[in-house]
Amino acid sequence: MAQPDTLLTLDGVVKTFGRHRAVDGVSLAVRRGEFLTLLGPSGCGKTTILRMVAGFEHPDSGTIAIDGKPIQGIPPYRRPIGLVFQNLALFPHLTVGENIAFGLRVRRQPAETIARSVDEALALVELSGYGERRVHELSGGQRQRVALARALVIRPAVMLLDEPLGALDLKLRRQLQLELKQIQQRTGTTFIFVTHDQEEAITMSDRIAVMNGGRVEQLDTADRVYNRPTTEFVATFVGDTNLLTGRVSSVAGPTATVSVPVLGRDVPAPAGDARAGTGVRLSIRPENVRFADSASPWRMDARVLEVVYAGAAHRYTVEAGEARLLVAAPASPGTAPLAVGQRVALTWAADDAVLLAPPAGSPGR
Amino acid sequence: MTAWIVAHRTIVAAVLLFLPAPIIIVILSSFTKAGYIGFPPGELSLRWYAEFFSSADWLATLGLSTLLAALAAMLSTFVTFLGALAVTRQRLPMTQGLETLILLPLIFPHAALGVIMLGLVGIFGWTGNFLGLLLAHFILTIPYAWRPIVAAMRKHDLAVEEAAMSLGAPPFYTFRKVTLPLLRPGLVTALLFTFIISFDEVTVSLFLVGPDLSTLPVKIFSTIQDSGSPVIAAISAILIGFTIAIVFLLDRVIGLELFVAAEQRRKPTA
Amino acid sequence: MRLGRWAWLLLLPLLCVLGLFLFGLGELVWSSFNGPDGPGLDLYRQFFARADYIDVLIRTLWVAGLTTVVSLFISYPVAYFIARFQGRRDWLLVLILLPWLVSVVVRTYGWIVILGNRGLLNGFLGWLGVIDSPLRLLFNTTGVVIGLVHVFCPFMILAILAVFLQLERALEEASMSLGAGPLETFRRVVLPLSLPGVISGVMLVYLMSTGAIITPLLLGGLRDRMLGTQIYQEMFQLFDFPKAATLAVILTATAFLVVLPLQWLERRVSRNLKGAA
Prior knowledge:
The structure holds three protein chains of three kinds. By secondary structure, chain B is mostly helical. Chain B is built from 13 helices and no strands. Chain C is mostly helical. Chain C has a single domain (41-272), classed as MetI-like (MetI-like fold). In chain C, α3 (51-84) runs antiparallel to α9 (182-210), α7 packs across α9 (182-210) and α9 (182-210) packs antiparallel against α12. The interface between B and C is large, with 103 and 101 residues.
């Protein structure tokens, strides 16, 4: 199952704490040099996976391998990993430079090599000249970078990052997301990043593993996770969506027609491998629901119930049939938003909708 | 590596046996029947307990120690409570210095404290009487009351009182119904802690007892020196019982772990 | 509630009591400079002129130092064990706190029962046939040190434990993830971070051992006089308050001579660890 470019594999990994199954049969193949994010709500098992890779927890069953070699039984300090902790865990008794030098000193590298590596690492995270500072003199963002440099300087095969940006405010967080991504690309290190923030995951990742209840629901590129979710959980956890229950009434080529009782009509969706007569859930993102014009192949009537101005877009709640739908429309300056009570016609492109697999229990993908 | 773990565990096990050892031995030997204590222990009896409870002298001493500890605990808790209110609510000059002063008795060697107290008590003419002991215990227990009370007050959010007053509660009502209940765990801890410190105190009391007046620990001390009768084991077992009850109460009131943390912030800073 | 000027009124009783203590302290120092021949350094001169007093002083330092070192070596592993204990820590704490809160005199009595010539240990060893004549464990320096270590090592354990309880587990994991094995992690992370607790424990134990009276009197031999027992004797056998006061001042001075530098050190170390919690 390991492809040539696979660096880290998890195969059927299970971990229970007492009666709680924290990780419930996870298989993953992490490619060399990629930025992979484990995304999920708290308690979904993402941190436990990280701790098992790091060697602080041990799987009850299943194997974890790096470069095809199982790492079971290897203590944390002999694993080729770098770890950035949620609370950073910088050593308070050491200076910034000593923190970064820690892993190199442990490896008994000569003083000159250490000094050079530390300077390089400081430069990499744009903290040149901060080597003599004490950790408590730094700002949150700076500490963040020290933690990153400390782990990177030992040149680990895999970097593990456990929600390292969680404590920062939004603006700084966005900035560091970009920097982190740049550093990852520049060093070519494999990153496994844990977060519960879907926006963060989409911004940074090459691939995202969406986790729920100890399982991986979907492992795919950020784009596909957002636009082509395979399960209801993924569709709702990653971004907002409208979920409609219906039945496939006919399939014509790439397009299926789905009859949705709450809308009182048929709507189009991509067929995929759906067959006529099966029950499905249809997901359509608010920004993919459009106001129909004369060129639209189909349209349905709706009435505006509520308008919320959200910066770049207006978010409408509309009533169509018995359903309430969310619609997001770009707000252009000078155009007045629709008024509450106004009648509108909605449509969407068949390709923008997604038919989801029936909920839980079935092997997805 | 494993050798280190084995060594570590061995030391830990040894210390965890070492610490309770004399206490367990005292309790066990209090049930001896013989006039001396040895190994193997021989027949069991309650005769030394009977001797203790039939001795008016010992019982009076027990009563005196209890009274002394209770009064000292209440005095130092009350006075500390008032002082801590002032220190935690008002920006006073030299708070740091004041705190150092309050904790000062902790960092004097006990033998020196004994002489200091003896001199002080002599000025009032209270040498060898109850008031002298009470004054000394009062001073000695203040640092032990200070930490839990101040910790409770610092933890307590003054906004709660402001909320009460904004709802129309007058200051004294707020104090009674909001402040005091919130500080209760700290106060109870202070009371229990100062009680046990006073009740067990022996080195300083040694300087202050008189021919007709002795605390229980001092009387035990002089009896050990004089006769070594096993009645001491019975009395000691009773004292241990007291301590166990108080540790149990402390566990109930704040939990022992918090107690360690609160206690440690009491590090002497002179 | 704001207190305004009431603050000083609330503080007044406490200040009075502390004032009394300071007054007593002043009285002590004053007496030590007022020998039978009027004010001066006579009493101190007499002290340092007597070889037996110097002996007592040195023995006090030796016994207190030994007690401190032994306490440190047995307390450190225990504190670490308790801090990292996964189960119900309360039960372990009871094993430390309970003996700590039991009166010194009771605990010392327990040691007499255990260590005496006809005590449990000798009885047991004799019964096993390991020894022919009883080991002399009591009425010598060994007995005093065993007793003092028992009395004071809970202070040391609690002081170190308090620091360990604040030490994040993640710091040790961070060290391991950077390639440091358990011993290296201990040396580079755990030990330096626990220094403030070690220093304050050492201060407390040393300070209290220098001033002990009960344990050396009950467990020590006639030759095992320490400053504390000497003060007790001057006071109650010779009724010489000025001499006792002089000894008390010398005792306090010897204690502070060690404690003040340690305090300075602790402050330095703690400053370096700022933000450790």
